[in-house]
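Protein modeling request. Please complete all fields; requests missing the sequence field cannot be processed.
Requester role: graduate student
Desired output: 3D structure, token encoding
Chains: 1
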Amino acid sequence: RNFVLHVFNYFKPDFTGEGIYVTNMMPLLDGQGIRSDVLVKRTSPKKAGIREQRESAPVEHTIHYLPARRSRVFPSELQLLWWILRFGRRYGVIHYHAFCDRYFLSILAARIYGCKVICSCTLDDGPGEVLKTYHPAYRWLVRKLYSLIHAFVTISPKLHDDGKGVIPDRKNRLIPQGVQTPAEPC
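Delivered output (186 residues):
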């Protein structure tokens, strides 16, 4: 299953850095025999500047948008869980961009399907910072839920350090954002 699902809260492929990065990365992954889809939780296609796609099931290089309605009965986290339960077995890897601890049910569903789970920590969402948001009585449970995740990818030394002592070192990966420079000086 050389198929990756990238999960975003917000995704604007022609505007945000991560949107541009992922859409430019997809052809490179294709060259390696790895197919990619994107699943977006909170950005509607209209706000992303994209014509709405009407496929109900994933196809190659598709950007899927969860319904943008706000509902207390069916919040976006449950919409995400529903989508993973319905289509998740298709993917070998599910990459949650901007780690959010409120996704633990969909992460559990992905693991049940045998998917590897990667969570990116890009802002103030390092494992240590997220852990602090919980009441001390529940932090043991959050640490256990962290074990569902195969790797936490951090983009800065600060975020990388935030994971130390909270998650095992083998799961704490630092991959700094880089800039491609010309081979010869300008």
